[in-house]
């Protein structure tokens, strides 16, 4: 697909509308499902179009319709139109189809912005070492918070003054409070880092011979091992939308998975992948306290952790 062609931009816009209509969480779950399907096509000897251009590219990648559009639309619905079905821009579970046409169009507009941001990120030294999709997601989220709530990235001054910047009021304002305690998220980080690292190395070994013969593109041969742990973690979030109470409280571990998979791909070590998963868990919670807990909108802690972690790992290795 040509980056700036009319057809591409039309697809980007359409993906953003769909992403907003379904809401942020359902959209990224759909994105993960498309990654699975696209990867299966690659393994079957088919092209990587569905994987690279649809699931992770301009059509429905997380930086466009596959997540970021839903976040921006939620912020607009809550902060401007006052018609968010859940009443809060932090509610990324609720579909927004029942709001108004302009909320979904706003998703399309921010999808176009996310597409443009990704093209800019790859041109900026050092920053282009980070996962560009994660960078676009975070920048888009910060912009929507500023535009629709007139709020800084760190959130409400009143909340920070009352509770303390890094405090959570006994987890009352925490993102994913069921895993906010270090004793919980670090253990999950270890496990997810190990699993994602093993997946990455196994898939790399399976794809390397195919890439060597040209049966699989170099891009797909890297992306599938890198992303599959993330996919597993994203698909495991389905109970967040379908369940209630304690059944809903599944681990949110896709940043830990990326830390583990990328570390394994760089080093070949499962042990280091597990350690990286722990570090990813700690960074994710720290960023939640810095940019999510006191805010009125959703700035995604896992995406922010992926931004930082991938940049550091790629600079080191």
UniProtKB/TrEMBL annotation:
Annotated ranges, domain DUF7973: 2-148, 226-315
One Pfam family it belongs to: DUF7973
The keyword Translocase appears for this protein: no
Record keywords: Membrane, Transmembrane, Transmembrane helix
Transmembrane segments: 12-43, 63-80, 101-126, 132-149, 187-207, 219-243, 255-279, 299-316
Protein name: DUF7973 domain-containing protein
Species of origin: uncultured Sporomusa sp
């Amino acid at each position: 697909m040509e980056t700036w062609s009319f057809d591409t931009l039309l697809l980007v816009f359409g993906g953003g509308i769909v992403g907003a209509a379904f809401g942020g969480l359902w959209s990224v779950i759909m994105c993960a499902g498309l990654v699975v399907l696209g990867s299966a096509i690659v393994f079957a000897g088919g092209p990587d179009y569905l994987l690279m251009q649809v699931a992770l590219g301009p059509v429905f990648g997380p930086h466009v319709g596959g997540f970021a559009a839903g976040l921006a639309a939620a912020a607009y619905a809550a902060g401007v139109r006052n018609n968010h079905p859940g009443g809060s821009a932090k509610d990324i579970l609720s579909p927004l189809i029942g709001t108004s046409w302009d909320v979904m169009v706003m998703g399309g507009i921010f999808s176009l912005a996310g597409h443009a941001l990704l093209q800019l990120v790859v041109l900026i030294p050092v920053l282009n070492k980070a996962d560009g999709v994660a960078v676009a997601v975070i920048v888009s989220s910060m912009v929507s918070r500023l535009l629709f709530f007139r709020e800084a990235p760190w959130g409400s001054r009143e909340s920070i003054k009352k509770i303390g910047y890094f405090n959570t009021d006994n987890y009352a304002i925490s993102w994913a409070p069921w895993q906010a305690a270090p004793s919980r998220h670090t253990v999950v980080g270890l496990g997810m880092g190990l699993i994602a690292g093993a997946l990455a190395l196994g898939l790399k070994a399976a794809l390397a011979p195919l890439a060597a013969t040209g049966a699989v593109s170099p891009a797909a041969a890297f992306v599938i091992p890198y992303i599959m742990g993330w996919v597993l973690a994203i698909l495991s979030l389905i109970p967040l939308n379908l369940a209630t109470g304690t059944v809903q409280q599944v681990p949110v571990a896709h940043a830990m998975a990326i830390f583990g998979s990328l570390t394994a791909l760089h080093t070949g070590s499962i042990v280091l992948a597990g350690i990286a998963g722990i570090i990813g868990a700690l960074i994710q919670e720290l960023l939640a306290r810095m940019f999510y807990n006191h805010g009125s909108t959703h700035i995604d802690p896992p995406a922010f952790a992926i931004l930082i972690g991938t940049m550091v790992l790629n600079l080191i290795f």
